[in-house]
Amino acid sequence: FGIPPAKQFTDYSLLSGGEKRLLNLLSVLMANPNFLVLDEPTNDLDIQTQLKLENFLENYKGCLLVVSHDRHFMDSVVSYLFVFQKDGGIKEFPGNYSDYLEYEKQHRKQSPEQKNIEKPVNAKPKNRDDKPKLSYRERIEKEEIEQRLADLGRARIEIEQRLNASDLDNDELNRISEEYKNILEETDLKEMRWLELSEKEG
Question: How many CB atoms lie within 10 A of CB 198?
């Protein structure tokens, strides 16, 4: 996990929050468990440590149960989701978070004929006076968000490759790490807005 020798003999009380979390996790992993429960494991970890943790868990042979708001981390390590809904229900989905977003996107793009098939026979007819669920401006915004998310995804992959390079000095590493953090934050905001618009679209 990239802990330098000079740090390995540091008193526990002098470690940062992220270093303590990492040390606690490593002490568990030393027992070679076949089942791990991780609650927000990437909190307080720097970008490089997050990537190393992701790489380790991608090759983990046991069962992994993760509670996390870090969608990029989940994309790397999970293969099945329990998605908490606004109504308090839990939706099961086989796949990672990006798979789930794509599924939701395709599901909402169903043709009217397909949606009619799913409606019960006694469904009430739609009121002709009902306004469109998304305004023209919101539909344009949704399309722009989808394009921006694609661009951010490509930029994230490129930066991850640069972070894995061994020839970076400290200044460049800090600059790239900050750029990576900004990309993740913008991606989270865009995805949240996309979900809001998708739910409104129905």
Answer: 18
